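Today's session is about reading a structure prediction critically. Students often jump straight to the picture, but the first step is always the sequence itself: look for stretches that repeat, for charged clusters, for runs of hydrophobic residues. Only then move on to the predicted structure, which in these notes is written as discrete structure tokens rather than atom positions. Here is the chain we will use throughout the hour.
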Amino acid sequence: MSSLKLVNSLDLRQSQYPSSFRKGAKFVWFRTGSLMVADAAAIVAAWLGAMAVSTPASVWVAPAAGLYSALPVLVIGYSIFSASRFYQSGSARKDYLGLVGATTLLTLSSFLLFKYFQAFSPGLSKAYFLAFWGFATVLVPLNRFIVDVVTTRLRQLGFGLYPAFLIADGPKQNQATQLIKSEGHYKV
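Below is the predicted structure for this chain, in token form.
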């Protein structure tokens, strides 16, 4: 019986943590949350910027009404970005051309919702949606780029790295360690 306990404690494949939750998961949730906040800030800024540019001053809607009408756009945006897998790890979240396509789909969906279905409509024109598309296609990828630069910088400082355990022969150990470290995602 005691040898069985010894074998289980030396098993390198088994997690040391009782919840079997990976150690870098907090950083993944932080990155996903920061991407969602950055997307929300970009979409709301594009929505309010389009309101300031395209709506005449005499008919200008109060900012509270603009924020109220931005809520369905945020829901549509999160749906499109989630379905397009822009919140997952890997290269999908850095697909800036895909983000432009997703913001174009967001603009078209918002246009249909507000213009033709008359939902939440404070009298928005076609020029408004064109301005929104212009602002959104610039601000959303720009915010994503900023989040990626900050994430890379935090990883260079040692935050958010996944622990890795390397088993290799003596001559190949340095080469394997350098390869793992060059990826920038693991702490050996």
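Discussion point for the tutorial: DSSP finds six helices and two strands in the chain.
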